[in-house]
Design a protein that fits this description.
homodimer; 755 residues; mainly alpha; 4 strands; 69% helix; globular; CSC1/OSCA1-like_7TM (chains A, B); membrane (chains A, B); transmembrane helix (chains A, B)
């Protein structure tokens, strides 16, 4: 077990590396050339046009003002300064509520930390068991933990009672937080300006009708069953194939742009397409260029064909539609009611935001949906408990012998001692590392297969899966060493009362491991987040090779977004560690506090300056966050019961049993009280908004407003399309002379390539 | 273990007793004097007026026609003859679907029985393990069961595969049954003539408003939020106290009637109230009579006062209301949507039928509701697992010594040998017997405390609790001998994989016990049901002492009703036994088949001729029935896995594990597919009915139709009230002379007492 010095040493290293990241960030963000990496949000909002620079060429790339460097941490108070309503306006409710999770961590754990240090640390410190055992190595850390209390001691009552206090405090905080978020959501939905999804309902599983097309069937059904409220509807086309074509075309365009750029920068050496061959590098390219252009044109024609085919083909209309109503009230009614006597037909729900729709999944029939979910549940089980098997198999192949077999020519290279040791040390871990990196992608793919039809629900679903994975493989896996599969075997053979004991008994011993984990993953990891090293490099690469116009530069920016399915389950791990160790090893709590405070500031900065969310769900994920907090609490309570019963304090078990029962009841209470705010839209609110709108805008033409709100993005007028057309035109005509098409993009292209 | 002869002997006894019951029933039902006991339904329907008799006085009471006795079983085909649509019309959907449960039992188990006897019985019979073991006593029954198969035999694959076949067959039957019942319910709701609950929504948790009364608040809220649809509403009065007063008055009236009758039959000896005392029995009564009449009058005044107080007191209006709409569509919309942003306020749901409302529970606030449910869940846990503790305590008191202590004067009596042995044999069981008799009442009380607000939901809730109790204390309690508390201890100390083994291994050994159980409880018990011994006795007692008029005789009839919370969980026990033993001891299956067939005929007869349901919920309980079938299936599958793994066939476990997983998935599929038909009312159906009604009855005045549909029964015009007033009037005036009030009841009373 690590001593206090070890912990301090590790803390120092991690603090230093965090500070180094922060310092690097502070330096890099001041350089105008990185402005689009560290402040993309402002560009997307149109507030910043180009890096703030006055003066020479040098100043355009490097900040030479020494004063700005002195206050290198001044972004932190700046990040905290923006008031919440403005922040919601600026970054959306999803992001604001997301950083509230960190704030909630502080609200829960600051009082708990104080209480634990005031009550439990003295109780533990004076326990005196470890002083008596001379032959065991122990550290000051263990003297602060529950391990220092002798078996069967009356002192355990302190831990049991404090566990009640902690639980009730957590209940208090998360109840109020749930209430607050529910209010914020309702206010957000009500205060927002008019949005298409307020009036629209997504209808799935439209039954097939031999006499009518889907669009007629939908129209008739809603004209009959919502006669005074139905306004219009938009059918959904199965544009998956078209989307593939468009995707391929875009990839082609990128390559074209790259070569185009080369020549635009050096127009004098521009060869005609008739020049073929030759030793010069420059003269080889035109062939590639013209071949690419040909393919590109063919792709474009193919796309047009496919587009026409989809639009004219009745079979390409999938049995789903977006139905819009004359009022929010009618849309809320339709979304919440059952339409047909067969509950698997005419399924209605609130339409997601147009950006939020996941178009590929809209056509899945009901029974297929349940089968997919079932198969994915089975797959998740195997993924969690058996993922080590394929990895172990890959690892067994990825030995020196395995490599020599497959690549015999490498034999003399890797047999060299220095390389051999690197390979031997590196290879066994690499399969696991790669797996852990692609895991979120796998989970997202599983969520997509399950058939959810909005990006926000896909994110929530993937987060649930990832949380389970972390819970079993990181949390339990670190406590009971051994793979999840071995754990599963152990648990199947142990009784319901033994399992918490087995885990509980190892908990105090793993405290130092988790402290280190918090520092590495929580402190340094979060500091690395603010540095945005990968987007920084990619931006500069793109900027050098692809960017031609301001618009291209806009597209080269990668503001990124909060990766909810990855980061939220990780926060939950910290919450769980806090709950578990609050009564066992209070020393761990300050480390968690630092994580929450630090992450709060960093992510507040990021959502103000960087992230651009892909959709806005109105904090629809909060019920999931709440549920996982409850799961964390339950696990902590069960483990405490297990731990205490191994310490000869079984008489405390009946005293502690009500705790999980109360927690489950509390969860049900909160669910009943608040969850519907995240699922349903109350009629009263809808009616208030409708009445207000009728009074203020009596002449509003809702039909025009809604008529193409829910069109598949592939059919939308794409501004980059024209630019591309321009490129082809350039090919054939004179590149720098405007064509007859007098679109605004022409001038963009000209000015862009002229700069 | 019992031999085949034991089983045959027991079967013979039970068959004989069942036949004796049936014979007694056949004799008794032919006597005109019992007509109101065995055919009350027809009297309530107004089809039968009085026993069919022609001829003398004797024939009025006894059937002397010998021909009718010969065909003493002819009620059976008669019971089966009525077609289902007519039966629904006659007895209601609840009853018809209830007997479908028995029919479903036949559908499931007839093919399973054939298959099991065709495949598993030969496999077991030729297993030959028991032939080799000479020193153990075994019977032919065990040779038919899985016990006869040697350990580690390949024959177990037959049982595992058949278990798949049985499961899939059950899936097939219960899926189609669910579908059929859902269709029947929708048709029933749609085909029914206009009912108040189609247009009405029960609104609970109306928030308090300082400026408005509840009734104004409700009206304003629905006028604003359902402007084109709101019609009227009826507030609910807290009439619990009034109901008590009325109840007390009724009890008093019964006693009065009894004395009244005495004197009406012998008017010549009728004394005045001034005659006091005397040795004669007749002369003592007038005092009681006048005292009772005084109390009765006072009760009546008290009731009037209370009634006025309730109606005038604004605080007596509870925050709940029945809100009626102009169309079924609007009521369906309001019932299915969330009204206010606070989901614990303005809770709406489909109004139960007026008869079905449980008025006392309408006022419970949301949070109190969750607390009550939580407390009752805890109470149920203790009731199931710890009910033996108070019983053991009572038993320890109820020994000979205990009685002697409390009642010393009984000492010499109970010390007599013969009595002593009876007391000793009888007392220990009596506490348990009493507990089991009052258990359904306790469970119903718990359901009432939980705060459900319709009789049908109370019944369903009590049934769920009783099912759990039977599952733990009868099924598991019979397999693992020992109390539930001991079981709980065992299970806490055993691992997840050991529990099914522990139970599974005892299953084949308990087959004979369950066969006997089925014969006693299922065969004889059901035959006793048709005899209606208790209602028969009570009717004749009432008829002799209380009945004065035809109307009284009507009230003395106790048609009873299907006691869903008691009998449905018992059927589920038979289903579970069938599922569990289908693969283990197929010998048990024919006994279950006899039960299902016999019970089907008997209950079909009863719902045609006897039972009068208190309410009509439209088979709303079917999702519960389905869920419990799934629970039975899951338990059977787990136990088979446990049993096979103790038989050295662990390699079958992975083969069988998908079975419970599939079962859970099947349950989810059915739930999603059909459950909403039992919870929601689809808008399409509502719209069709509305349109039809508008076309056929354009001038319907819905307001008049609905205006007092949901009035508390205590405020309703009670026909018996007047009769009672008459009795008081009789007291003061001349009894046999009509008073000035010229109501139809006067003539009833006169003719009734004159006959």
């Amino acid at each position: 077990m690590a001593t206090l010095e070890d912990i301090c040493y590790s803390a120092a290293i991690n603090l230093l590396s965090a500070i180094a990241f922060l310092f690097a960030f502070a330096m890099l963000r001041l350089q105008p050339v990185n402005d689009r990496v560290y402040f993309p949000k402002w560009y997307l909002k149109g507030i910043r046009g180009s890096p703030t620079h006055h003066g020479g060429f040098m100043k355009k790339f490097v900040n030479l003002d020494p004063r700005t460097y002195i206050r290198f941490l001044n972004w932190m108070p700046a990040a905290l300064r923006m008031p919440e309503p403005e922040l919601i306006e600026h970054a959306g409710l999803d992001s604001v509520v997301y950083i509230r999770i960190y704030l909630m961590g502080l609200k829960i754990f600051v009082p708990i930390t104080f209480l634990a240090w005031a009550v439990l640390v003295p109780v533990n410190w004076t326990g005196g068991t470890l002083d008596k055992i001379k032959d065991l190595t122990f550290s000051d850390i263990d003297k602060l933990s529950i391990s220092n209390i002798p078996e069967n001691s009356i002192r355990f009552w302190a831990h049991a009672s404090m566990s009640y206090v902690f639980t009730f405090w957590t209940f208090f905080v998360i109840y109020h937080e749930y209430k607050e978020v529910a209010n914020m959501r309702l206010q957000f939905l009500a205060a927002e300006s008019r949005r298409a999804d307020h009036f629209t309902v997504l209808v799935r599983n439209v039954p097939a009708d031999p006499d009518e097309s889907v669009t007629d069937h939908v129209e008739h059904f809603f004209c009959v069953n919502h006669p005074e409220h139905y306004l219009l509807h938009q059918v959904v086309y199965n544009a998956n194939k078209l989307a593939d074509v468009v995707e391929a075309k875009k990839a082609m365009r990128n390559r074209l742009t790259y070569y185009q750029n080369k020549y635009d920068r050096n127009p004098s050496t521009r060869p005609t397409t008739k020049q073929i061959g030759g030793g010069q590098r420059g003269s080889k390219r035109p062939i590639i260029f013209s071949v690419l252009a040909n393919i590109s044109t063919r792709r474009k024609m193919q796309e047009e064909l496919e587009r026409e085919k989809v639009l004219s083909d009745a079979n390409a209309v999938i049995p789903a539609a977006f139905v819009s109503f004359k009022s929010r009230w009618a849309a809320a009614v339709c979304a919440q009611t059952q339409q047909s006597s067969n509950p698997t037909m005419w399924l209605t729900e609130r339409a997601p935001e147009p950006r939020d729709v996941y178009w590929s999944n809209l056509a899945i029939p009901y029974v297929e949906h349940t089968i997919r979910r079932f198969l994915m549940a089975v797959a998740l089980f195997f993924l969690i408990f058996f993922f080590v098997i394929p990895i172990a198999f890959v690892q067994s192949l990825a030995t020196i012998e395995g490599i020599e077999k497959v690549f015999p020519f490498l034999k003399h290279l890797i047999e060299a001692d220095s390389i051999k040791s690197i390979v031997q040390g590196f290879l066994p871990g690499i399969a696991l590392k790669i797996f852990l990196i692609i895991l979120p992608t796998i989970l997202m793919l599983m969520a997509k297969i399950e058939g959810f039809h909005s990006l926000s629900s896909l994110d929530r679903r993937a987060a649930s899966k990832y949380h389970l994975f972390l819970l079993v493989n990181v949390f339990l896996g670190s406590i009971i060493t051994g793979t999840a599969l071995e754990q599963l075997k152990t648990f199947m053979k142990q009784s319901a009362s033994e399992i918490p004991q087995t885990i509980g008994v190892s908990i105090p011993m793993r405290a130092t491991f988790f402290i280190t984990y918090i520092m590495v993953d929580g402190w340094s990891g979060i500091a690395a987040e603010v540095l945005r090293l990968v987007p920084l490099i990619i931006f500069h690469l793109k900027n050098t090779f692809l960017v031609k116009t301001e618009q291209d530069r806009e597209q080269a920016m990668d503001p990124g977004c909060i990766s909810f399915p990855i980061s939220e389950p990780r926060i939950q791990l910290y919450f769980m560690l806090g709950f578990v160790y609050a009564a066992v090893t209070p020393l761990l709590l300050p480390f968690i506090l630092v994580f929450f405070a630090f992450a709060y500031v960093i992510f507040r900065h990021q959502i103000i300056n960087v992230y651009d969310q892909k959709y806005e769900s109105g904090a629809a994920y909060w019920p999931d966050v709440h549920r996982r907090l409850i799961i964390g609490q339950l696990i902590a309570q069960m483990l405490l019961i297990g731990l205490l019963s191994t310490k000869g304090a079984e008489e405390l078990t009946p005293f502690l049993i009500p705790l999980p029962v109360l927690t489950i009841w509390f969860h049900k209470l909160c669910k009943g009280r608040f969850e519907s705010a995240f699922v349903k839209f109350p009629l009263q609110e809808a009616m208030v908004r409708d009445t207000l709108e009728r009074a203020t805008e009596p002449n509003l033409n809702l039909r025009t407003y809604l008529h193409d709100a829910y069109i598949h993005p592939i059919f939308k007028h794409d501004p980059s399309e024209k630019t591309e057309t321009m490129i082809y035109d350039d090919e054939e005509d004179n590149p720098l002379v405007a064509t007859k098409r007098s679109s605004k993009f022409v001038s963009d292209v000209s000015s862009g390539s002229g700069s």
